[in-house]
Design brief:
about 160 residues; mainly alpha; two-stranded antiparallel ribbon; 7 helices; 2 strands; disordered C terminus
Length: about 160
């Protein structure tokens, strides 16, 4: 099995979905870690990067914590991929015009390069049109336990 999304993106989506559910309510790294039974240090590292990349802000005080910097309907899935993973590639040879890429010794004779580029373009078109609000639209019950909640998140795509 090949995973197309990194673990960092998977957990960033989990955190962002949690913050989306609790709009206007700051959540600490500890609260998020406890919610999903994960390490506070692990969650804090992802939150730190999400802050640096402009997805969340940290607010101090009694009602402080982390909140989305902008509404989920203003964040596209490709924004997250580009900021956390420097883009998304279905294969090494799939790239956009002018983009640097790893050299492939078979590039000029590969019979599947063109079909892979077509698949990549189609996927990117879908990703570019997908906001986090749309991705999180089915998450409505905030009292669902972690294993059930995880099932509502998109499964990591596999080939």
């Amino acid at each position: 099995m090949i995973t197309l999304l990194s673990r960092k993106v998977d957990y960033a989506l989990l955190i962002l979905s949690h913050l989306h559910e609790r709009q206007h309510q700051g959540q600490s790294a500890r609260e998020i870690a406890e919610r999903f039974s994960l390490s506070k240090a692990f969650i804090a590292n992802i939150l730190k990067e999400l802050c640096q990349k402009g997805f969340v802000v940290s607010q101090r005080g009694v009602k402080g914590g982390y909140v989305l910097q902008r509404p989920a309907d203003q964040i596209h899935f490709t924004d997250l991929l580009e900021q956390l993973e420097e883009g998304f590639r279905i294969a090494e040879c799939t790239h956009t015009e002018g983009e640097e890429r790893p050299a492939c010794t078979l590039e000029h004779q590969c019979p599947i390069r063109t079909p892979m580029m077509q698949i990549h373009r189609r996927m990117m078109k879908v990703f570019q049109g997908l906001t986090l609000a749309e991705l999180f639209a089915d998450i409505v019950d905030t009292n669902v336990n972690f294993p059930s909640r995880l099932q509502l998140l998109p499964a990591t795509a596999t080939i």
